[in-house]
Q: What sequence folds into this?
């Protein structure tokens, strides 16, 4: 039988040096509660100079956290994302990741270490024993809890030790800025960049295979040719971003076979220029059927009728392919007469 199975009133008891009742072991209760050891005062409890030293240590830790948080923000803003440094024994790593990890770690550690040192050296460490009671608290217990809370708040000396209080509030106030600064990666807002491409009046149509400007005679009836804007090169830093909006496909159809009036007006001698980007999820369109003048997106089989304004005739695409209005310049080369009149690519861009 354990001591938990023996009614408390039946346990043999004695008194410790402070007069508190403790259970003693006997044959029936070999594991009696030995009671709490005598409380020993810390040096901070009896020496105010030691308490001041602990207070300054805690304040120093909280101040270190504040400086580390400022360092985190400064690193995030100033260190280039592609800069590398050598750190022994790790090797070459990202300078930005290293700086962010170190400063954020120091900021967290300093707050935790400051709180632990404060609790261990300045807050009361005297153990208090409460007997078990029913789950529902009585008014007396509630009053005691409130009194204990007030006593704990008083013993924490938060109001008296203003240096600790102020530096702690500073550390806790600055640290969330680390997360707020990270929100910068959600911006800047795209504005109207998704609604415009590199095409503009006078921009030559460049063959993506030969990288040469094209004449109408270069495009045969029933053929499909891909083009990009003049001046856009593959080694450009923003090539992938711009070609994803400006990629063009050219098809030549007999003018009598073009069904839509505007489609015919925006063409040149039956040469139609459409966005190569599918309006479903942005896949490049590359499959052309000469007899029907249909193009098929290989990703989800959206099908568009180029002879009828690029309208969707099958599949999940949300709207027709945008058409680019084209003509020829004085030298006989194909050129854009304007940008697309609507955003290219997936339909959700229109709702942006």
A:
């Amino acid at each position: 039988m354990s001591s938990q199975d023996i009614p408390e009133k039946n346990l043999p008891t004695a008194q410790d040096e402070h007069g508190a009742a403790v259970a003693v072991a006997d044959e029936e209760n070999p594991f009696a509660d030995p009671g709490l050891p005598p409380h020993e005062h810390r040096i901070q409890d009896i020496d105010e100079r030691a308490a001041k030293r602990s207070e300054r240590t805690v304040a120093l830790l909280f101040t270190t956290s504040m400086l580390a948080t400022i360092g985190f923000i400064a690193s995030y803003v100033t260190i280039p994302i592609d800069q590398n440094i050598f750190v022994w024994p790790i090797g070459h790593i990202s300078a930005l990741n290293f700086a962010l990890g170190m400063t954020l770690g120091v900021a967290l550690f300093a707050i935790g270490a400051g709180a632990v040192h404060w609790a261990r050296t300045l807050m009361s460490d005297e153990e208090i024993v409460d007997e078990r009671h029913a789950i529902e608290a009585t008014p007396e217990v509630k009053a005691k809890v409130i009194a204990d809370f007030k006593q704990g708040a008083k013993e924490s000396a938060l109001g008296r030790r203003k240096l600790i209080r102020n530096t702690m509030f500073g550390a806790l106030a600055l640290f969330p800025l680390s997360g707020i600064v990270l929100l910068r990666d959600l911006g800047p807002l795209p504005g109207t960049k998704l609604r415009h491409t590199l095409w503009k009046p006078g921009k030559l149509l460049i063959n993506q295979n030969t990288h040469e400007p094209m004449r109408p005679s270069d495009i045969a009836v029933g053929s499909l040719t891909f083009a990009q804007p003049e001046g856009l090169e593959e080694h450009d830093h923003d090539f992938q971003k711009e070609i994803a909006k400006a990629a063009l496909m050219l098809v030549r159809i007999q003018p009598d076979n073009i069904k839509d009036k505007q489609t015919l007006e925006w063409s040149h001698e039956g040469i139609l220029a459409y966005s190569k980007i599918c309006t479903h999820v942005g896949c490049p369109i590359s499959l052309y059927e000469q007899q029907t003048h249909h193009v098929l997106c290989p990703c989800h089989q959206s099908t568009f009728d180029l002879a009828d304004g690029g309208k969707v005739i099958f599949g999940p695409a949300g709207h027709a392919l945008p058409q680019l209005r084209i003509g020829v310049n004085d030298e006989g080369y194909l050129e854009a007469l304007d940008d697309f009149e609507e955003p290219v690519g997936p339909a959700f861009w229109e709702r942006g």
